[in-house]
Amino acid sequence: MKLKGIRILGILMGLLLGTILAMVSIAIQRGRNSDARNGGGTDGVAAGLGDRVKEGEESDLEQVAPPDPGRRNQLRELISATQSEPNWTRRFELTERSGKTVRSEELLGQPYVVCFFFSTCPGTCKRQSGEMRLLQSKFKGKPIKLVSISVDPDIDTPEVLKEYAEGFGADPDQWLFLTGELENIIKVGSEMFYLPGVERRGHPDRFCLVDAKGTLVGSYIWLDPDERDQLVAHIEEILGSNE
To answer: Which of 49, 66, 83 is at the close of a domain?
Structure first.
């Protein structure tokens, strides 16, 4: 494997490790909250995990994953490492629920938040779309787009996406729902947004923030309240710099 490929793989593994550690941190915190509510009991998986992690182990976790809000430093390294890759995916052309073709170039000039989902998801997708709806409400009338990309294009036709979007009150001028060929969507997820695990009916629970120049600047675990707050703060930072 080329040295550059090893470097890219290492950074991607760092992103994946950061996600795992963040989820462990959430579980630990939930365990502590459960203990407090139950007078020190250990009911539930999160509480059990919290009991098994000692103080020294928590310190080790913090040392392994130094603070990097939104994984912004890691993403800068990844983007720099892939600049010279000739076949790297740097743009997309997908179909919106309206039936119109949407090109990534058309989104330039304002930031956008992107996530991956599928309409029949039995897991977190509906909660994820609910969080996108909250972003839509918070930034209503602001120059920012929201983009949800399906990882199940055989099912998620424009007609299906239109019905799904209506269920979340998605403003068609601000919140786009996109579909296309699965192979292309996987490449967009892994190479354009540096997300491991984008596959048919599979995706990470992350929101990616792209600035007005089309550069990926942040990646946030939406299940983590602190990371959701970081996303909002970084959106406001970008919007403020564009004024």
So the answer is: 66
- Model confidence over 14-52: pLDDT tens digits? 555 545 544 444 444 444 444 434 444 333 333 333 333
Please choose, from the candidates 139, 115, 138, the residue with its C-alpha nearest in 3D space to the C-alpha of residue 127: 115
Residue 59 shares a structural domain with residue 98: no
Residue with tokens 């593994």: 13
- Helix then strand then coil, in percent of the chain rounded to 5, is 50, 15, 35
Diameter over CA atoms, the chain = 58
Looking at residue 122, which CATH number applies to its domain?
3.40.30.10
Helix (H) or strand (E) holding 216: strand 216-221
How many domains is the chain partitioned into structurally? Answer: 2
Give the residue numbers spanning the domain of 221: 71-242
Q: DSSP letter for 199, please.
A: B
User: 149 has which bridge partners?
Assistant: 116, 178
* Helix (H) or strand (E) run with residue 176 in it: strand 175-179
As given in the structure block, the two tokens for residue 188 are: 């967009």
> What contacts 130, CB < 8 A, 6 or more positions away?
168
Asked which of 51, 66, 81 is the last residue of a domain, the reply is 66
Q: Are residues 56 and 119 in the same domain?
A: no
Q: Does residue 211 share a domain with residue 124? A: yes
Tell whether 14 and 97 lie within a shared domain.
no
> What is the pTM (predicted TM-score) of this model?
0.76
Bridge partners of 18? none
- Burial classification of residue 31, based on how many CB atoms lie within 10 Å of its CB (0-12 exposed, 13-18 middle, 19 or more buried): buried
